[in-house]
Amino acid sequence: MAELTITEVSNKYHIKPDTLRYYERIGLIPKVPRRPNGNRYYNDGLQGWLEMIICLRHSGVSVEALVDYAHLLEQGDATLDAREELLKEQLELLEEKRANLDRSIKRLQHKISLYETGEIKKGKSYFEEYKILDD
Amino acid sequence: MAELTITEVSNKYHIKPDTLRYYERIGLIPKVPRRPNGNRYYNDGLQGWLEMIICLRHSGVSVEALVDYAHLLEQGDATLDAREELLKEQLELLEEKRANLDRSIKRLQHKISLYETGEIKKGKSYFEEYKILDD
DNA sequence: TGTTGACTTGGAGTGAACTCAAGGTAGTAA
DNA sequence: TTACTACCTTGAGTTCACTCCAAGTCAACA
Description:
2 copies of one chain form a homodimer.
Chain A: H1 6-13, H2 17-25, H3 44-58, H4 63-74, H5 80-116, H6 128-131
Helix pairs in contact in A: 4-5
Chain B binds a DNA duplex (30 and 30 nucleotides) through residues 5-7, 16-19, 21-22, 26, 35-40, 57, 62-64.
């Protein structure tokens, strides 16, 4: 890890430079340090934070929640409890998401198996297929 | 199960009447049958389909993909293979999602444990917390 | 000394998926 | 008859999360 330009970070994390600047604008990333000419550079700490928020964003954690967390971090020691609380709330949301995701995956697998075994036969009416799945 | 009004379906599946009408407008739900006064009623087949699409929507399957699937269903037997293909694609997407979700959950759990054991101590600089997590 | 090319800014535009508002009708209850 | 409620339609508005655009700066290279 080293200090990377915005384009390098963009390539590393598959996230557009515009998005990186947007994240900074809304406070999801703090003020990024600059070269004498004004160009941003991203150090190790920033890259660690980026990795974290990109992972969580991919899982559907809202930008708002992450901005809240970032703001709490900026306020330092006084917000340790609030931060833990926020993380726990988000964890619960993600666990709900996973439960639902598991249901959907099972549903799709079951449905696909019906296609493969030919149990969804020709000539069925539009919705007949769905009665099978009322489980 | 019986024939339900739009409000009853709305309550049953926690989805707004406007959203139900919207789904119909865009072809995600087929023409819903009507009472003589024009009010919609949702029969068993429709409710089964709704349950399915709501589950998948909660898991992040796009409206577009579901509309495509609905259109294929409407076209009958000739689309059996295309339907199976579409389901398999969506299943793959969901499995990717689950892998990422698991990563995020582990990350959050780890982070919360750092808060609980006090390993995230007072007086740390803004990003120091994230260096711990470079794993 | 131009002319690339990578960066900068502020602000506007986009796409997905709802969500709402305005105005109208049908059926019931006082 | 009037009031109320639940439904209807069309079309516009909202939210979220980017994503793009135009115009400008700066460093390096021919």
